[in-house]
Amino acid sequence: MDATDGASEPLKEPEDGEKPVSDEPFDLDELLPAIGEFGRYQKLLLWLICLPACIPCGFCAFNQLFMTDVPHEYWCSIPELQNFTVEERKQYGIPMEEYNGISEYSKCSRYAIDWRQYLANNGDLPPSPPNSSWPVEPCYDGWEYNTSVVSSSIVIDYNLVCEYDIYPTLGLVALNTGGPVGVYLFGLLNDRAGRRTSYFSCLATLLLGSFMTAASSNFAMWAFSRVIVGLTIPAVYQIPFIIALELVGPNYRSFVTVMTCTFYTCGLMMLAGVTYLIRDWVELTLFTSVPFLFYFGYMFVMPESPRWLLMKGKLEEALQVLEKMARVNGKQFPAAFKNKLQARVDAEKRRTVKREEVSIGAFDLCRTPNMRLKTILITLNWFVNETVYLGLSYYGPSLGENQYLSFFLSSLVEIPSYIVCWIIMDRWGRRWPMCIMMIMGGLCCVTTVVLPEDAVSETLFLYLLSKSMLSASFLIIYPFAGELYPTQVRGVGIGTSSYIGGLGLIVIPFITYLGKENLVLPLVIMGCVSVAGGFTGLRLPETLHHRLPQTLEEGELFGADWTFDDCFRCVPSKKSPAGSYENLSHELSDAALELNAGMPVSRAYEPTTSTEKTPLEIARIRRQSMKRLVRQASTMDTQKTADGAMQLTYWF
């Protein structure tokens, strides 16, 4: 993955009477205050389209957990004894074994008797049951299942028990393997064909994979269908998320991010109810996918991102979206903006020399010692947060007495953690809340090892505490990483860390698989990983109240003065660089005075004298000043291209 930093080349000289156009790219954020940063248009888009579009991801990513339910009781099938009762078949054909100190019928072996010949010679079962001295053999003819609790699953249909019990875990690996590939492929489509085309292509792929899942006749076909579904996760909810982010002002992007996470979690809570009501795995697959066919109705109302349209030079289409936004928001669309944008597009068409692109890759993050250390620590903490968070999500149904209630509660506890996280980030910073949540959440997991085996409720309670804390820390790592990486390499930095972090999703199903032998062992492993990651995160510098780095050189200097005492500083000190954050430049102060004087909004885009400044000019002054002095406000953006268009990131 590469990020580009466009170096401006001079344009062709304007013709006589033609006003020269600045080579600086136009920032759409300058227009949003005039037509509405979060008006009626954005609210309708967010609540009716973008947030509901998050639900398919959770449904199709986690319904697999309930397709692979394992019946508590199963035993070898003996076709020759099918005319006898279940108890007789088990009594005469299945040896007894001890499981956790309890004597039960064996699940993976049977007596090695030729029952066809025996019944032909004797006509009936032996007068007394076999004893342990009789030879045994594996279940060559499959298994029988007690379906009183689990009536349908791929485990029953495909006989995935005993030596095949690792197969459901491989199904989760198949699902998670598709994720990074899908983010890359749909990311390319997202940038080249637009957000609408990419989203509906992603949705069609998701539904195709789900229909293939329902139609699968064997495990190989089922696993392949899960790879198809995995291609769309998390891209299917990140694309509408990006559309929402690109259409709201910077001050509202934190809110959009938190609401997206909340709706995603609400989708998981709804899934718990659906899985409780529908126990047949084929019907469950269809019920959690077919309703999303109605989402294709969004084709008539979902707008294309104007940022992408402008990036592609589609001026008229972009203006249609922006003018409609202004009209729905009850704002006057500034005519001067259209003229300026037209001049910009014409200037790009007349450009005789293309912009030079300076390629910056992941290896550039590791060329200097401080940046190398921060990159390693960011990536490590991303890996820990994503792996443990998803591992806990996968393991929820295994705990408690009711798997549906446990899964519902494990999703419910995420919502308050998002709200608390949103509040404390701007008060206590990023580092301490993230690290404390990781350490305390990990300790809650590790503590389960001291509980007795029958402490089901207590284990579930500690698990829920841990899940809540890890949800908060996982939400923090995204903006924290974005602030630690310099602006010049932010896209490639976040992309690299998220992709490497996503590799943990391929490993975590094998960790949860260990719970078949020891219920708390996966919790202990994930807890230790979380605690270790939390302590390493303390070595990262705090970003709240600090001037953020813009270049790799500044990134190398940022945090270079870190001391061990910084680990114990909970509330970050307000370190302001030379000059106030508000007093960015004399130009900005003069412009602010003009605004305070009460210049009408209607005059904002009218021609002005040389001494007056319009809001567009003020915004440009502010943006130019902010390049020299940056103040962050916990805005959770996704990675961007050099043109300002947002990109997909492998982030659940």
Automatic annotation (TrEMBL):
Q: State the organism of origin.
A: Culex pipiens pipiens
UniProt cross-references to CDD domains, sorted A to Z = MFS_SLC22 (cd17317)
Q: Where is this region: Disordered?
A: 1-25
Q: Which PROSITE patterns match?
A: MFS
- Which keywords appear in this protein's UniProt record, sorted alphabetically? Membrane, Transmembrane, Transmembrane helix
Does the record bear Mitochondrion in its keywords? no
Specify the Major facilitator superfamily (MFS) profile domain's residue ranges: 110-545
Skewed-composition ranges (Basic and acidic residues): 10-22
Protein name listed in UniProt: Major facilitator superfamily (MFS) profile domain-containing protein
